[in-house]
Structures are given as structure tokens and as C-alpha cells.
Amino acid sequence: MKLIKRLFLTLVVVVVALVAVSFLLPGQAAVSRSITINAPANAVFPHVNSMQATEAWSPWLSRDPETKLSYSGPDTGVGNTLSWMSEHPQVGSGTQEIVESIENQLVRTELDFGPMGTATATFDLQPEGTGTKVTWGFQSDLGLNPISRWMGLMMDDWVGSDYETGLANLKVVVESGQ
């Protein structure tokens, strides 16, 4: 009986310690990747300023070809919205809406993953020589949820390679004139 009591007490202490430490962890998760595309910003911009255009280079749609997509709002720019539904755990379900669009410079979107939370994504286009440096960023407020804060530490590992794949796909699409 003493052994069970000690094990239980140890478990409680460990859980309390993990929760306490979580409040010292960052309250935001951020991921950012960049690539230089050999094309001017006006050739890149249409591919990031339309949710419909992202189908051509999205790193996630190839994971589940059965993903159901629907669009609303204008075809481009602010208000253009994508909703998706997938049973695949790495695709999931949610919505993404363009909330800011500065021609040939910036596109900002708001993502809603339902119970998984919300986030903001950006596409920043900067001239670089004769090309365009595209930076795809992601930021999510983790709130005070201890589990979210621990998971936030792994966000770059989980999403970073997808951003690299997506940017490489975007580069191919833009440079090939598709």
C-alpha cells in the first residue's frame, strides 16, 4: 500500500511540475521559411493571393487527395476563403481567409482549425536581385493551456518541412509559368 501511495504522490508531483513549467514556456508558436523565386513579385503574388491558386502548390493536399475543398468570397484578395475537410490527421479540417492583401508585397490569412485553435499565416514578398524572396510565416497564440504550450515547442519541427515543401512547389509553379 505504501508503494502505491508513493507512486501516486510521485505522479502528482510530476504532473504539477509539468504544468507549472508550461507557464514559463512561450505563449506563441511561430514558424517561418523563405525561398527566392526567380520571378518578379507580380508573378508570385497571384499564387498566394488566392486560396484557389494554392491548390497547385499546397504541401498538404497531396497527403489526402480526398480532401473536400470549398471556396467563398471573392476569387482573390481580402475575403477569399477556403474551407477544407479531411479524415487524414495531418490535413484535418478548418478554414483559411485572406484578411489583408497588399499587392505584390504581403498576404495575411487567418486560420481556424476548430477545436485545434486559430493562427495567422503571412506571405511576405521582397525584391531580391531579379527575383523575389518569399517568406511564409505562421503564428499561433497558445493561450494558457499547458498542453498547447508544450506542443508549441514542437511546431517548427512539425510544420517547418511542410512550409519548405510548399515553397519549393510554389517556386516550380511560378518559374514554370503554370
Question: Main attributes?
Answer:
178 residues, 7-stranded antiparallel beta sheet, 32% helix, alpha+beta, 7 strands, Alpha-D-Glucose-1,6-Bisphosphate, Chain A, domain 4
Structure commentary:
It comes from Falsiruegeria litorea R37. InterPro entries: Polyketide_cyclase/dehydratase, START-like_dom_sf. This is Polyketide cyclase / dehydrase and lipid transport. This protein is of the alpha+beta class and 178 residues long. It is built from 4 helices and 7 strands; from the N terminus they run αβαββββββαα. Strands 1-7-6-5-4-3-2 form a 7-stranded antiparallel beta sheet, covered by helices on one side. The longest helix is centred in the N-terminal third of the chain and has 21 residues. The N and C termini lie far apart (70 Å).
